[in-house]
Specification:
There is one protein chain. The chain has 402 residues and is of the alpha/beta class. The chain folds into two domains: 63-177, 2-Layer Sandwich (60s Ribosomal Protein L30, Chain: A), CATH 3.30.1330; 179-271 and 317-401, 3-Layer(aba) Sandwich (Alpha/beta knot), CATH 3.40.1280. Helix content is 32%, strand content 18%. The strands form three sheets. The protein has a seven-stranded parallel β-sheet, with helices on both faces. Strand 1 and strand 2 (72-76) form a beta hairpin. The longest helix has 28 residues, at 371-398. It comes from Nyctiprogne leucopyga.
Length: 402
């Protein structure tokens, strides 16, 4: 090897450069590659090089969890927790509630009623651990429990005196709910149909009256306010979890939710002593509905109003005071909206089932009663008549006439 190097040097003239290929030039220009040890060894080396006075790096952020009892754990919300902002979105946006299938319930009474009825709790925000002791423990174990400051809940709540308890539930399905046994045993063959009830406070009060009167079911037509809106829930005082509420029904599908042989009556303010006459309403009120097994009355144009819309003929219904006997078995009552009253569809449905107009007499000059007040009056009168009818039937069975 030494002899070859000597021979090479002897072949070159003094001052002559050694020829280098292109690959050799590129190799000379390359930066040296640093060979790194495995990750574990790098960590050990960095630990050894760190100054003894330098504190160790902080651990990655973790959720702080605490125990509220055997098998019951909750987490403490960190500042800026995004889940808390969703509470307001769920509460105020019907579109969000429908799209994500979630509703918001506030307060211990309402949340407890929902859990006992079988509603599925997803997330519960609370301010003190004591709130958890008043709720079913088995249901709480299946949910995410998040402890937040009371000041935060107060800023989200619409209540004057918040209780510090807000729950996000899956939107309840009336067919899967377990209603209280006392409500079921007191239920009567009495149904309520809400026709364009748009005021949240009125609808909540109507639902509460329906539960108190022992209604079998409540049907809400399209145009009614969402029953899961916070104001409706507060006014309902737990009625949502005491009887089935079927919402967003059109008049074509509504008869399928009524029992066979039902008679539909409408609450009205028409004077029973006035001469019967046929009235007309704009076609914008909608198409006439039909009852099971009945043909729908045909709409006949009668006149043109100021806007040029053709009118729809409204059938004539027998008129009587609400306190006179009108309860068949079963029976349904329609309560009209605050602004436009009864729709054409409601009157056609009542006519096709042999229903009546039920009038609550008021002092002359008073236009009408509030829809929630009218519903309470008619429903509790219907309850009185049905109970009296049942009592007479029981007496006939005990003491048959020979």
């Amino acid at each position: 090897m030494a002899a070859l190097r000597t021979l090479g040097r002897s072949l070159l003239q003094p001052g002559q450069a050694v020829p280098v290929g292109r690959r050799g030039v590129r190799a000379l220009r390359r930066s040296p590659v640093r060979v790194l040890p495995p990750q574990k060894e790098r960590g050990q080396a960095a630990e050894a090089q760190r100054s003894p006075r330098e504190p160790p790096p902080p651990p990655p952020p973790a959720v702080e969890r605490s125990s509220a009892g055997p098998g019951l754990w909750y987490e403490k919300a960190a500042p800026g927790d995004r889940r808390l902002g969703k509470v307001v979105t769920i509460a105020k946006s019907k579109k969000f509630r429908d799209h994500h299938g979630k509703v918001l319930l506030e307060g211990q009474r309402l949340i407890k009623d929902a859990l006992e009825a079988g509603a599925v709790l997803q997330t519960l925000f609370f301010s003190t651990v004591g709130h958890l002791k008043e709720l079913p423990e088995a249901e709480l174990k299946r949910a995410n429990l998040v402890k937040v400051k009371f000041e935060d809940i107060k800023s989200w709540s619409d209540l004057v005196t918040p209780q510090g308890l807000i729950g996000i539930f899956s939107k309840p399905d009336h067919a899967k709910m377990s209603y209280p046994a006392a409500q079921l045993t007191s239920s009567l063959p009495l149904l309520l149909i809400c026709d364009n009830i748009r005021d949240p406070g009125n609808l909540g009060t109507i639902l509460r009256s329906a539960a108190g009167a022992g209604c079998e079911k409540v049907l809400l037509t399209k145009g009614c306010v969402d029953p899961w809106e916070p104001k409706v829930l507060r006014a309902g005082m737990g009625a949502h979890f005491r009887l089935p509420i079927v919402a967003s029904l059109d008049w074509e599908s509504l008869p399928r939710n009524l029992p066979a042989g039902v008679q539909v009556c409408v609450a009205d303010n028409k004077d029973p002593g006035a001469q019967a006459e046929t009235v007309s309403v704009p076609t914008g009120a909608g198409r006439a509905g039909s009852a099971p097994g009945k043909s729908r009355p045909k709409a006949a144009p009668e006149h043109e109003d100021e806007e040029g819309a053709a009118g729809v003929c409204i059938p004539e219904l027998p008129v009587q005071h609400y306190y006179e006997n009108w309860t068949q078995t079963p029976v349904a009552v329609v309560i009209g909206g605050e602004t436009h009253g009864l729709s054409a569809e409601a009157l056609h449905l009542a006519a096709s089932t042999g229903g009546k107009r039920l009038v609550i007499p008021v002092v002359p000059g008073v236009d009408s009663l509030n829809s929630a007040i009218a519903a309470a009056i008619v429903l509790f009168e219907g309850k009185r008549q049905l109970l009296r009818r049942h009592k007479r039937e029981d007496e006939r069975q005990k003491f048959p006439v020979v």
